């Protein structure tokens, strides 16, 4: 599967009685009905590890682009209406700021490694606490309660899988806990954030900005209010979109398919 296509439903499974495995690109498996696949005896796999480095890089890129108002700056620099560059056109510092990472899995941890280079204070919230050595390596502080992280962070970066527990994890209440100077960065799944609440928070300056590689749906309707806000950066779900990583994803999927067809252990099996 690539970009969640084709849709794996009962009609398709009934039409493919010899199907052995569904190999899905990327980390997320929220588009797969694992119970349905299991009922047909079909295995499933994903490609979780090869995407982590590029996605972490992209999370940092979104943070820097948003904090330094990169998109706005570009638009000003190339606009036919620009006669001078205003001296009071300012961004926000990343170095030394507090980063809160929600979801300290492989991608979240790699973001922390990069943020350490910017001398950021790193907080994290995760289902399971990392061990002391891993925390110490990046200087990360565990927040058992997500509320504590939200209240302290200058940047909140979401890097969680979409599950029933993380569906609209960030809503009106959570946004109101954030600093009015804070930026929300989402590199996980669009449905992790209540988008209506986010629009309201951005319009009313409850938070300063958002940088989103994911939305729901994708792409957004062309008249969606998020597309009209200057304090929002939206990219087309390209966290893992580099030539090397996409090739490795295809190789991983091919290995899983070959293993599934020959009865060997399936790399990155999720079912």
Task: Describe the fold and architecture.
The chain has helices at residues 10-15, 34-39, 52-67, 70-78, 106-116, 132-138, 146-152, 172-177, 195-203, 243-262; strands spanning 21-23, 43-45, 98-102, 121-125, 140-142, 155-158, 183-186, 209-212, 232-234. With 271 residues, it is of the alpha/beta class. The protein has a 7-stranded parallel β-sheet, with helices on both faces. The protein has a two-stranded parallel sheet with strand order 1-2. Helix 3 (52-67) crosses helix 5. The chain is globular, with a radius of gyration of 20 Å. The two termini are 15 Å apart. The mean pLDDT is 96.
Succession of helices and strands: HEHEHHEHEHEHEHEHEEH
Q: Going across the major beta sheet, what is the strand order?
A: 5-4-3-6-7-8-9
Number of strands: 9
The quaternary structure here is single chain
Secondary structural class: alpha/beta
Number of helices: 10
Shape: globular
Rg, please?
20 Å
Contiguous runs where pLDDT drops below 50 for at least 5 residues: none
Rounded mean pLDDT is 96
**How much strand content do the residues show?**
5-15%
Largest sheet: 7 strands, parallel
Query: Percent range for helical residues?
Result: 25-40%
Distance between the termini: 15 Å
């Amino acid at each position: 599967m690539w970009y969640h296509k084709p849709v794996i439903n009962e009609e398709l499974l009934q039409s493919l009685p010899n199907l052995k495995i569904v190999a899905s690109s990327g980390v997320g498996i929220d588009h797969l009905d694992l119970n349905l696949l299991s009922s047909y005896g079909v295995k499933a796999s994903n490609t979780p590890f090869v995407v982590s480095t590029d996605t972490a890089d992209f999370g940092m890129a979104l943070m820097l682009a948003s904090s330094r108002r990169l998109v706005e700056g570009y638009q000003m620099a190339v606009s036919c209406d620009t006669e001078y560059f205003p001296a009071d056109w300012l961004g926000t510092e990343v170095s030394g700021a507090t980063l809160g990472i929600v979801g300290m899995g492989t991608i979240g941890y790699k973001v922390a490694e990069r943020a350490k280079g910017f001398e950021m204070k790193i907080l994290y919230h995760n289902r399971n606490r990392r061990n002391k050595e891993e925390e110490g390596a990046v200087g990360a502080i565990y927040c058992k309660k997500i509320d504590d992280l939200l209240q302290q962070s200058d940047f909140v970066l979401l890097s969680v899988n979409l599950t029933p527990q993380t569906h609209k994890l960030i809503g009106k209440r959570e946004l109101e806990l954030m600093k009015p100077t804070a930026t929300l960065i989402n590199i996980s799944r669009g449905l992790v954030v209540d988008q209506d609440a986010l629009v309201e928070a951005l319009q009313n300056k409850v938070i300063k900005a958002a940088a989103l590689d994911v939305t729901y749906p994708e792409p957004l309707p062309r008249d969606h209010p998020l597309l009209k806000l200057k304090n929002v950066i939206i990219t087309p779900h390209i966290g893992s979109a580099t030539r090397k990583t996409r090739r490795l994803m295809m190789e991983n999927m091919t290995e899983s398919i070959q293993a599934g067809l020959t009865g060997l252990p399936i790399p990155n099996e999720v079912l």
